[in-house]
Amino acid sequence: MQTTAASMSSRTLLSALVAGSLAWTAILATPGALAQDTAKPATPPAAPAAAKPRIHEILAQSDADVQAFNDHVTILSNPWMEGRLPGTRGMEYAMNYMEDQFKKAGLEPAFQPSDGSAKTYRQPFSLGGQRQVTQETIVVKCGGTEKALVAGKDFKFTSLGKNGTVEGPVAFVGYGLENAEKKYTSFAEGHSLEGKIALVLRFEPMDANGKSLWSGGDGWSGQAGFQGKIAAVAKRKPAAIIVVNTPGANDPRVSSLNAGGGRAMCDVPVFMMSAEAAGDLVSRCDGKRSLMDLRKIADAPTAGVAQSFDLDGSTLAVAGVSEEKPVRAENVVGVLPGQGALAKEVIVIGGHLDHLGMGDFGSREGPGKLHPGADDNASGAAGIMLLANSLTKAYKDAPLGTPLRSILFVGFSAEESGLNGSRHYVDNPIYPIKDTVLMMNFDMIGRIKNSRLSVTASDGVKGFKEWYQPIYAQSGVKVVEAVSRGGGGGGSDHASFQSVGVPILFAIIADFHDDYHTSRDTLDKIDREEAVKAVRLWHELAWSMTQRADRFEIDSTSGPMRAQPMKVRVGLRTRDTDDASGIEIVDVTKDGSADKAGLKKGDKIVKWNKHELKDRQGFVDDLRAQEPGAKIQAVVLRDGKEVTVYITLEAAKETP
Ligand SMILES: [Zn+2]
Fold first, then answer.
1. Which of 77, 198, 295, 338 is most buried, judging by how many CB atoms fall within 10 Å of its CB?
2. CA of 592 relative to ligand 1 center, distance in Å
3. What is the DSSP annotation of 204-242?
């Protein structure tokens, strides 16, 4: 890496942009920006090293496409965009920005609303419900005093139970566990919980260092999760359940009120409470003992000491109400109309605009921090905006009468929650699928290393390779080629198109990074110049395809659409659940893909490869489209908690 005065300054400005210390209007007004800090300036700085170049001098040195790419990624990944979660104000800003860029490039609005009103740049669709808490209160009443606890700090209403507003005496029920093997029970004989508010400790009996007494090693046993204790307590008919972060537990989760996005496990309201708030409640209401004293009773049951009991004289008034609010999402769609005999055929160039918000789902770190998604997929969306511009110019410059296909540019929404925007599109196409000759998808082109770009192409498309390979060869990008067969293959929006028989090209960084789906996917790590090379490759491919006399023919035996024998093996046996809420793992093959990824017997797979998994059929269909070596994200429910795992699929054994 070469460190020059110029690159130092560019880094300083970039960190200012990242930190949001420049006004939003100033960022919007900034005409261009900077090459990545590893890049050599086009000309050496004129001033001696001592005099640092001004920002406008750095801007002037970088290529116009690099500047535009930088502008787009900077804007899409800044904190005002709130991680571009569908349904948020930040996502609305991001869509406005993309729409505005499409307009400036000269694209026409592509979506015709069904009520016959004017065409728009937005294709709306419903995303189903999203849980929103509309009320959460806990008031502690004891000794003639009342104290309202602070939602979000002292406690939180969870999705583990149902809505409710109740008032009742407080009963302590230890860890809320029964373990016949260990002759352990948290429930004193004859102690009724009916109509009471049950205070239950998180995890399981622990030693003085806060480590499990039951797991026989690191971590917790299978009983420490929410599901078992909530079921055991709920069986005894309390009016509400409060799970308390156990003081002194050796687990970082004990400082969080997050109970995961799990489904309801009982039909009374369930809250999480901090150790501090619960400690205050116990000392104020019980008067004699601390919360730690109560924990010790539960850790080491002693003959003659009741394991569960009422906290005399204390009453809690609790209320928790949440609603499922429908979320409306929109694909941003603009069209560059073709001309001549080819105009009715269309090429779709797309990439997803959405990301994970504050890590609300799909995050590898859990919720709470901004997930800017600079690489995933502000980079790809930025590429789409550059292409809208460059291809519009190319169309204007084309000799009159040259037959050109139409090009539809799409910023897909809700990709991260399961390719929702692209699936909606192929079910409700703006141009007929039969006239859609190619789909080109960008997902993560911002952190290309050593010029290596992975491009996946549909298999079984006649003449496809012969067409794209010479274009790759001239691009200056080291294309790492892959092919994909069958419907649904792969984890981004192109898969939706491939599943309806449209040939696809899909570009993504060839060398994956560890910041994927974390708060660390930030602007400062983006390599703008390499990304622009990928954009230029995409331009050349699109420009060639738009004039190609013939569309590609699909081989009826090996092209997109045809089901293939399974090429991968997961190494587990599963069964459907009664309510189609996922599939349950009944056996895990030792040292198989699933075992290596940490999947366990009893886990319920609820999400697979970014899709909600309902039944085995869906699972098998997805596996048919996978190639050996594919890395799949899966979410399983284990002890009532969602656990995310990454499975590298191994090759299926050859069957003789
Ligand atoms: Zn992505």
1. 77
2. 28
3. --B-TTS-BSSSSSSS--TTSSHHHHHHHHHTT--SEEE
